[in-house]
Write a structure and sequence with these properties.
The protein is α/β, with parallel strands linked by helices. The protein is built from 23 helices and 22 strands. Helix 12 crosses helix 16. The strands form seven sheets. It has a six-stranded mixed beta sheet with strand order 6-7-8-1-14-13. A four-stranded mixed beta sheet has the order 9-16-15-12, with helices on one face. The protein starts with 5 loop residues before the first helix and ends with a helix. It is about 40% helix and about 15% strand.
């Protein structure tokens, strides 16, 4: 009652009843046709609805799936005959070519682990998996090559192999050993031409505790298919356990029917208007994103990944949902906007392209099929002008609605039209992925057996960064995967902490500009503001740089300290030369709080000058010799430095000033 009056609730109930009746009468009707007022409803309400502008109707239609999705649902997908040629979908073709470039690359192996608790009948489980493979022909399809091109070959249904591996729990690090066994299975390659493209392994942890590991090649499977498989496995296993036949009706179409239908619609120009939208939308999009690296980039990717998880506090989750409702956006838009704001703060780039997967199952007949239907929307957002977070939500909402309204065209076709010779790898347009799962699959009970997901470690991520947000009824869980060549586990965890702090700040004050949103955790803030700036350091703590250098001189006076183009100075020699220059500076009055300029090329004299200024008690003002004369003049006047260390050929180009110039080459005798 805090949200709706009793009258409104009754009206909603009548509308719901009317909607159910229309669905039963015409299941193939478009959403826009179904969402109407009840025939016996409030006349004033019907009149108000009739006055809705065309813009609002279009917006409503987009929010409910877009015009194109409605048109797709209204048409049935024809079933191919036994003799009809079958073709790969656009996504399958992309994965097939990637496999030819890197045979056996496990980056496209999709692992899935189910924890089975309770009394398990292994034979029944094996029969259930075999029945699922029989139902979905894509699970027994292979993709050999003919004349260098991929073809589709459907194999007869055969029993699924289900080896059982006993896991010793008494061994130290039992959980680690389970993860290692899983990693070994995931690393095993698939042969697309021979198959099978799904492997099943049963890990027995205890008598009534098992892990069912299913590894599939991405060419036949997507994330939504996992939910389909879990639901079917629970229903079929329960029936088989009681000696009954499968309770599931035969599928109206197969994945190959969908792939053929989709290709026909692309070729006959059905999606030309959507294709034009994407080509215009992505024109001039940046092809690189300069993420700050955790360590130097080598240019060679190992393919290994790091992963970190974070569960947001309940109060923060509620605040984010309240903010989304208040600003008329979905939680998806809010979480994506915050992620974009985080990337903007890391990189400073205002033109961001982030990939976001969608189920790609707009047609009713595809809802319970297994296969690779996933499409990725390349969401290009404009963060220029340092907008307020609330304004960014509006921008991202508009981009999201427009993209969803043009989601039917395969992204591979967009890439092919954009770059005809480089349409294989979709990841070259975006290296960051954002995935939002509103209602993840919960556990399923099959008789006395409980089936639930088992969390797997990150394995060979395909993107530099991939954030998955799972919105559960009572909590929001964030999972960040990244290439280990860019970030390690510790850095990934810190990035998630920054994401949470940013969400806290944005939900508390959506009028705050992006540059003003807080990122630092309390621990990081204390480290930077207190620990690194302690006014009274404890005795015995680290010394100054030149004092630590002198300690090294005492330990290894004869060891090489400086080497450059034939020059070599030992620690003892370098310390002696720095001491001479420091005494010379002290004689000229250099001490604490005095600025001394240093304008030298990269040379031993530069290092000697740095050490000497520290030893004399002064502070260095570095001046690059390549700076424009006007800039050097400004720095000399602004700092009012009394002394500048340089060399004769550099000093001749300096602007006139009151600063005393010491040339380390021509004044060397006096310094000695």
């Amino acid at each position: 009652t805090d949200l709706f009056s009793a009258t409104t609730i009754e009206r909603m109930a009548r509308r719901y009843q009317s909607l159910l009746a229309r669905i039963v009468a015409d299941p193939q009707a478009c959403i826009s046709q179904l969402v109407r007022e009840p025939e016996s409803g409030d006349a004033s309400l019907v009149a108000r609805r009739a006055k809705l502008s065309a813009t609002k109707r279009a917006l409503l239609q987009k929010r409910l799936g877009g015009e194109s999705a409605s048109r797709a649902e209204a048409q049935s997908i024809p079933r191919l005959g036994p003799a009809d040629a079958r073709a790969l979908s656009h996504a399958q073709e992309s994965y097939w070519y990637l496999e030819q470039l890197q045979p056996g690359n496990p980056a496209y192996n999709r692992p899935m682990a189910l924890r089975l608790r309770g009394p398990l009948d292994v034979d029944t489980l094996q029969r259930s998996l075999s029945e699922i493979v029989r139902r979905h022909e894509v699970l027994r399809t292979v993709y050999p090559s003919e004349s260098g091109l991929p073809v589709v070959a459907v194999r007869p249904a055969e029993p699924v192999a289900l080896p059982v591996v006993r896991v010793e729990r008494s061994a130290a690090g039992g959980e680690a050993s389970v993860q290692e066994l899983i990693r070994e299975q995931i690393r095993q390659p698939f042969d697309l031409a021979e198959g099978p493209l799904m492997r099943a392994t049963l890990l027995q942890v205890a008598d009534q505790d098992h892990l069912l590991l299913l590894v599939k090649h991405h060419i036949i499977f997507d994330g939504y298919s996992e939910m389909v498989l879990v639901k079917e496995l629970g229903a079929i296993y329960s029936a088989f356990l009681w000696g009954k036949p499968s309770p599931l009706s035969e599928l109206p179409i197969q994945y190959s029917d969908f792939a053929h239908w989709k290709r026909q619609r692309v070729s006959d120009g059905t999606y030309d208007s959507q294709l034009t939208y994407w080509l215009n939308r992505l024109a001039g999009a940046p092809r690189t994103l300069d993420l700050p690296a955790g360590w130097p980039k080598t240019g060679v990717r190992s393919g290994q990944g790091s992963c970190s998880r974070l569960t947001l506090p309940l109060r923060l989750g509620k605040a984010l949902k309240d903010l989304s409702r208040e600003l008329d956006v979905t939680l998806f838009v809010t979480m994506l906007s915050a992620f974009q704001a985080l990337i903007y703060r890391y990189t400073g780039q205002t033109d961001l392209v982030i990939g976001s997967p969608i189920a790609g199952r707009a047609h009713l007949e595809t809802q319970w099929l297994i296969g690779n239907f996933t499409e990725v929307l390349a969401l290009r957002s404009d963060l220029s002008g340092n907008p307020r977070f609330g304004d960014l939500l509006g921008r991202v909402r508009q981009v999201s609605l427009e993209s969803q309204a043009h989601q039917d065209v395969p992204f591979e076709e967009v890439m092919r039209r954009q770059s005809p010779n480089r349409a294989i790898d979709r990841t070259r347009l975006y290296q960051i992925m954002f995935n939002f799962e509103p209602v993840p699959t919960e556990r399923v009970d099959a008789q006395d057996l409980t089936v639930e997901r088992f969390d797997l470690e990150a394995v060979k991520p395909r993107y530099n960064l991939s954030l998955e947000v799972m919105s559960k009824p009572k909590e929001i869980v964030c999972r960040l995967e990244c290439g280990i060549d860019l970030y390690g586990n510790e850095t990934a965890a810190r990035m998630l902490d920054h994401y949470q702090v940013l969400l806290e700040a944005a939900s508390a004050d959506p009028e705050c500009r992006l540059s003003e949103l807080t990122l630092l955790t309390e621990a990081e803030r204390h480290l930077q503001l207190v620990e690194w700036n302690e006014p009274h350091p404890k005795r015995g703590t680290a010394s100054c740089v030149h004092e630590m250098f002198e300690a090294q001189v005492r330990r290894t006076p004869e060891a090489p300290a400086l080497v450059m183009e034939g020059w070599e100075l030992t620690y003892g020699e370098l310390n002696e030369r720095a001491n001479r220059l420091a005494h010379h500076l002290r004689a000229m009055g250099v001490g604490p709080e005095m600025l001394v300029g240093l304008c030298l090329e990269r040379s031993p004299d530069m290092v000697i000058g740095l050490l000497a200024i520290l030893k004399a008690g002064g502070a260095t003002v570095p001046l690059a010799p390549t700076l424009p004369e006007e800039r050097v003049g400004f720095l000399l006047r602004d700092t009012e430095m009394p002394i500048l260390l340089t060399q004769k050929h550099i000093a001749s180009g300096l602007p006139p000033s009151r600063t005393r110039v010491i040339c380390l080459d021509t004044d060397a005798e006096q310094i000695s």
